Protein: Histidine kinase
Organism: Algoriphagus halophytocola
Amino acid sequence: MINLSPKRRVSILVHILGWSMLCTVLLLLSPLSWRVDIPMEFWIRQLFMAILLVVIFYINMLWFVPNVLLKGKHAVFILTVSLGCVLFVGVLIYTDFFLHLPELMHKAFNPDEPYVPKPRRISGDIFNIMLYLMTIGISTSVASVQKWQKDEALRRELDQQRINTELSYLKAQINPHFFFNTLNNIYALTNLDVKKAQEALLKLSRMMRYVLYENQKNETLLSREVSFVNDYIELMKMRLTDKVTLNISIDDPKDDLAVAPMLLLPFLENCFKHGVSSQEPSEIFIKLEIMGSTVFFETRNHIFPVNKDSPEAKENGIGLVNTQRRLSLLYPNKHRLKFGKDESKQEYWVNLTINLE
């Protein structure tokens, strides 16, 4: 027994209903209104013509259009359709004479008059030609639409595969970037305060758990992302001196919306990487506001030059560039990212708005 999918069953049902309606309107409705005793041969001829149209429809749709027209063989297609039209009309003419239909129809409409063979009416052949061309036209349109839908589905699948591959690559770049900076911070702490370094390692282990389990997913809960942000900030506080002023305002999510994991990390990293000086006073401003399904994220920090020989100087903003790319892939038309430098204040700022609906 053939097991058809629901979509396939619906498609078959639509074809059956379509042909039933077409044959009823074109081949049955008019003859039934004649109010004469129509001979059986006429209905045989109508049934034969209906079967012939169905065969022409599916041969053209399933084989001829895909293998000839859509392969660019336009002249062959037009020539074959023209020859098919002549053949179609010829077969119907032969069928009429084989069934003696002209004589039988004359007796049905004029039973008192003797039958005298007359030249065939051209109007009947024109009607048959129109039926043939309509069948060819509809089947060609259906085949073309199906080909377009198939190509579009393939294009979407390829785009999705490309996006998934690209996102995996971008996340793979972000993770080493994050660990590189964090391990540098802990290494610096080991020379100053072993206890703080131990606390930092505990926080890092909790953050690593988040990275290992949540970052493998396409989305995580916003509450977990916010917890990760808080852990990161607390970790960074351990290495800051009294010269750094932190202005932190982070909302706790009331609704657990879904968000891409580690999306905000590069902006935070840049704040602490470029906005902290061991010699001059500095201030870092971080604000995360959640209103319904919209997240507003803002950072501001002073700009201090980074040692040219340090690994951080060689990274050249990998995290920020990748985050821009992730936002464009994951939240097209649902985010707004602005950033820049305020030369008068020697300050770098970032404004990010994301709609998580």
